[in-house]
Specification:
Layout (H helix, E strand, L loop, with lengths): L7 E7 L3 H13 L6 E7 L6 H8 L4 E3 L5 H7 L9 E5 L3 E3 L3 H11 L3 E9 L10 E2 L4 H8 L18 E3 L1 E2 L3 E5 H7 L11 H11 L3 E12 L17 H23 L5 H26 L2
Parallel strand pairs: 1-2, 1-4, 2-3, 6-11
Antiparallel strand pairs: 4-10, 5-11, 6-10, 7-9, 8-11
Helix pairs in contact: 1-2, 8-9
């Protein structure tokens, strides 16, 4: 909404979430005065009138149209258009509230050792979205969470969600970083189709020596699960085949993350033991998805 160079570039990836995207953009527009910014929407060939809605109601938004091959590629496609020194990846199923832009941007500027920051994400029922702060999925952490059901370590449940603190991974629904850092790590790894790409990006940023921080002094509302067909109201927007592909992509991401980032940390025999466990989990997930898709 300004001809001056923006300080912040907000990138929103959209696929058939017209109504949610409109609410998101309206909330963004209400708080654009907090930071000089630009907004880029990367649309994945939506058929629900989303692109037309953007052109009519939000002409100040830069719209990229055409097919995207997954979450990573869709966000990365905005890279050539980014003019801000900071980049915020924002989900279309979110509502931005007061001071989110202003205070998170200020926090990143005032803490040069921090490479990425997120705010608190609140679900429609008022609870916190636990995925906003996570540990890297090492074999032990993953075993405790997926097999034993112990999530205390993985979700930092021993730290109050009202406390600002360093974490290993933040969520892609609100992911604020410096463009220069994203350029160094190559933005999102397009080998991930859906799920895991945000954790991988955090891992690459941490490898450069930067910290990642959960900053709950401000918050956004996150509907969550729409793109995966998990929200009943919007389930019709996602076909059965799409839901199956998205659900299975999460397991594929586990294997990619382990092979790419953790393989050399363990003996070879243990690496293959982990891969066996991942593939067993993949079979279980496939059966569950097949059963659910039959209804």
């Amino acid at each position: 909404m300004t001809a001056t160079k923006p300080e912040l570039s907000v990138i929103i990836l959209n696929y058939n979430t017209k109504e949610l995207l409109e609410d998101c953009l309206n909330s963004v527009k209400s708080h654009m005065h907090e930071v000089p910014m630009e907004v880029i929407v990367s649309d994945n060939s939506s058929t629900d009138g989303g692109p037309e809605m953007i052109k009519k109601k939000f002409p100040w938004v830069t719209l990229i149209e055409g097919p995207n091959n997954g979450f990573s590629a869709g966000n990365n496609r905005a890279k050539p258009l980014v003019r801000g020194d900071m980049v915020l990846f924002l989900n279309p199923d979110t509502i931005v509230h007061d001071n989110v832009f202003g205070l998170t941007v200020r926090y990143l500027k005032e803490h040069p050792k921090v490479g990425a920051v997120t705010c608190k994400l609140v679900l429609p029922d008022g609870s916190m979205d636990k995925d906003v702060r996570r540990r890297f999925p090492t074999p032990w952490i993953s075993f405790n969470r997926l097999v034993l059901g112990k999530t205390r370590e993985y979700y930092y449940e021993y730290i109050p969600d009202t406390s600002t603190h360093e974490v290993e991974a933040i969520q892609g629904a609100f992911f604020l970083s410096w463009k220069k850092i994203l350029d160094k790590v190559g933005w999102y790894d397009e080998g991930y189709f859906f799920d895991g790409e945000d954790v991988d990006l955090c891992y690459q940023i941490s490898k450069l020596g930067y910290k990642l921080v959960y900053y709950p002094d401000v918050y956004i509302t996150h509907l969550k699960g729409v793109t995966k067909g998990k929200v009943a109201k919007w389930k019709y927007k996602v076909t059965r085949e799409q839901r199956k592909k998205l659900r299975m992509s999460g397991v594929a991401s586990m294997e990619r993350f382990f092979r790419k980032n953790l393989w050399k940390r363990y003996p070879v025999w243990f690496d293959y033991f982990v891969l066996l466990g991942i593939n067993l989990f993949k079979i279980v997930r496939y059966v569950r998805v097949a059963i659910l898709s039959s209804y």
